[in-house]
Amino acid sequence: MKKGLLIVLSGPSGVGKGTVCASLRRRMPELVYSVSATTRPPREGEKDGVNYFFKTREQFLDMLASDALLESAEYVGNFYGTPREFVERTIAEGKDIILEIEVQGALKVKEKFPEGVFVFLLPPSLGELKQRIVGRGTESQDKIDHRLSVAVEEMNLLNKYDYAVVNDEIDRACERIQAIITAEHCKRERFQHELIAELQDLTTAKNGSER
Ligand code: 5GP
Predict the structure, then answer these.
(1) Which end of the chain has fewer CB within 10 Å, C or N?
(2) Which CATH number belongs to the domain containing residue 201 in this structure?
(3) Which ranges of the chain have pLDDT less than 70?
(4) Does residue 82 line the site of ligand 1, with CB under 6 A?
(5) Ligand 1: does its nearest atom lie under 6 Å from the Cβ of 81?
């Protein structure tokens, strides 16, 4: 069976990864979403096991120690991590899975899964990125300043990715990501092994019947 794709959607803080990912999932219900573990407290309306697996610091460290996380990163004072087994099982079942994670974690996933599809979401402009970070209105000035400086560092990691998608409009960004997924499914390498094996079977069968 062909393996599913591991798609990593990342990019700087405030670029709209969460919104784009949510919209993409509505368009592609077959796309499996990787629910992360985090030590950050739930925001209003967030549900355990749906938005995140909300963990204490101790529980999170236990997960790390038992190798239960594919990657993890500390981000603005909280830990975030991707449960490993779920990702591996989903891909093995031939289903595509999407991880919506920050850039440090994405780089760690790339080390373990270089065959993953790494998509960097770009703001239409840097000014717009700043607006989105400041405009969120949920954090103190200190936190905003920190988010801004992190965002600049994060932008510099663009060159590690396979694709760049500008988030000018959510629908257009989603269409681009869908096009990437379709193209990835058509990649020659994904067919090569199976086809060669089938061709060998055919040749063996033919030679056998000619004897
Ligand atoms: P928030 O607290 O706003 O939900 O997320 C903060 C940042 O953490 C976002 O950039 C989000 O993409 C990232 N994030 C969410 N889950 C994970 C994860 O499992 N691993 C990593 N490395 N980052 C994550």
Answers:
(1) C
(2) 3.40.50.300
(3) 136, 210-211
(4) yes
(5) yes
